Amino acid sequence: MNLPRFTLVVPAYNEEACLPALLDSVDAARERYHGGPDAVQVVVVDNASTDATAEIARRRGCEVVRASKRVIGAARNAGARAARGEILAFIDADSRIHPETFNAVERAMDSGRFVGGATGVRLERMSLGIAATMAAMLPLVWLTGMDTGVVFCRRRDFETVGGYTEERLFAEDVKFLLDLRKLGREGGRKLTRVRSAKAIASTRKFDKYGEWHYFTLAGKLLLKGMFSRGSVERHARRYWYDDR
Fold first, then answer.
1. How confident is the model over 42-65, as pLDDT tens digits?
2. pLDDT of 1 above 80
3. Which of 48, 59, 207, 223 lies 20 to 30 Å (CA to CA) from residue 214?
4. In a domain, 1, yes or no
5. Is the domain of 65 the same as that of 85?
6. How many domains does the chain contain in total?
7. pLDDT digit string (tens) for 188-229?
8. Neighbours of 240 (CB within 10 A)
9. What pTM, to 2 d.p., does this model score?
10. Do 143 and 202 fall into the same domain?
11. How far apart are the C-alpha atoms of 230 and 28, rounded to whole Å?
């Protein structure tokens, strides 16, 4: 049996409402991939869900692995351990991917110039507060070359950098891309942004917490971090882990 070219890892905690839309977009991208749909392995990581997330994933033909540690880095790593593809890609369960994702990522990786990268995102809706949040983040994207959306790299490079940290409750993706960038520099490779295949990101945090909440969130994390790491972790768990 031929090994898949890609493994797409989807960490998921209680995502029965959002997962079907993501998998619809993944199916469309697999059909468009010139290597054929069977060249893309899809691994859904059930991160201790209490709903029908795992059942939905199995019914849709995904491979399901379970990660009991409720840390996003641990879920991503669990998916990577089950991967058979040469190229690893990671996407959040409340997102949707572009139909040309696998073709665009493969072109970038086949060039030999890149250690990995991300597709970037567009939001499923826009408002003044969301636009201001995106604008505030753009300088970091421009300065670092890092982005979000579908994050990808070769499996051997993932293993070399040790995968995602399992100690951070958030910003584990930033740490991972920084590690990749450092590895790439040693071999003359860099990070890339495949902006022709942007994913669609959910705005459910804005729906729940308000259009401007990222600015108050950053302030709270900074203020709490000045006094107690435990306070930061409790706030992070409430915001990123315990609201579904």
1. 999 999 999 999 999 999 999 999
2. no
3. 48
4. no
5. yes
6. 2
7. 999 999 999 999 999 999 999 999 988 887 666 655 554 456
8. 14
9. 0.92
10. yes
11. 43
